[in-house]
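so my prof wants the structure for this chain in the tokens format not the other one, which i didnt know existed until like an hour ago. anyway here's the sequence
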Amino acid sequence: MNSLTKQKSLPPSIKTPQELVHIKHKISLRQYKYWILALRAYRENYEASKGPDDSGFHRISLANVKELIGYEPVRAELRSDFEALRKEPIIYNVLSKDGKTAQRGSGFISEWEVSANWIGFKLPGFLVDCIERLDLKNAMFQALNWSVFDSFSGKYEAILYKLCKDYVGVQRTPYMAIATFRDYMGLNDSEYAEFKDLNKFVISGPVKKINASRLADITIAANFKKESRRVVGVQFDVKLRHQAVMGFGDDPVFSMARVTISMAQQKKYLSEKTQEEIALAIERANAYADEQEQSGKPVSLGALYHTAITQGWGLEYKSKLAREEKKRAKQPAPAPEGKRAGSGFDAPNPGSNQAMAKFEALPLADQKRILERFSETLKGPLKKTYENQGLGSQIIRGSLAGWLARDSDGKDA
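here's what i got, hopefully its the right format
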């Protein structure tokens, strides 16, 4: 756990593109999972240009729900759970046309119906906007691997996982004052009133469970802001990690995509391109998006990824990397150990895989310390790539692996 330095004008809650959302997760873990399934179902319909039925409801088949949650839902419980989702409030702020802030409220869903074969639901308008903005870089509700989410048996780790996954593109959640965080997690005043209990059961404990999960595709760390000796706020750092288990949910080759790519679209890309081509295309598209953003030009990442993958940006990028590597191979041998400042892609040597595995087994604090030293060796475009993509970049991971295997500064990793 790290401490935040004193900050000014910190945002008070969780941001979406247009509003601050104040969610109080007082619903049960089972109800929360049903809500996530509703959000996913709406997005899948949206991507397929499939609208609601004649009554305005989107549907999830009970057979699909059974497959996803692993058991047959009890109808009475379903009705009770969806009614709880309708009644539980979400209060949020919007900027009105006169420039002043107005406050609105809704439920997690606005209407529901349960039949013998399916569940129908309607989402409130602001959630519809959030789900339909997934192609925007700053969108909330990012791609969520259901198998990972459903593996959590505790409410707090599920909520934290969802929160951090939504902000994986920017690598950290917004700062929250402790009172705001308590509201977000659905705690009343008497629950975990002492910070040591809040930290143990709602922050540190869930963080450890997420980081220890064999399925989880992210690693998180809590940073605390203190005033004197009192903790007054928290923010979570988020880092993508390579999954040890294959065959469920999103394919890892899409892990660096900053917006949702539907499972159907992933399968289509994988049927047409190699994994290497797709990964390199996404990496090149991310770099292009960063260039456009610096120029003040908006980019639809969903459309950009489609162009990059289908038009062969991956092969072009691979050729460029090969030319750069060939050019570097012709350069004079590097300076002796301790005097060398790396500035290019280091091809992994025979010990790089072992060094990288050892590094990834270290605690987050030790990894951060080593990465700080490693980042000081980077220059130019490589340094920019590291700042924008971190270890999600294949180039950066290769460079780090080589550095860890050969450099005296990395031997303690």
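also thought this was worth mentioning. The first strand starts at residue 2 and ends at 4.
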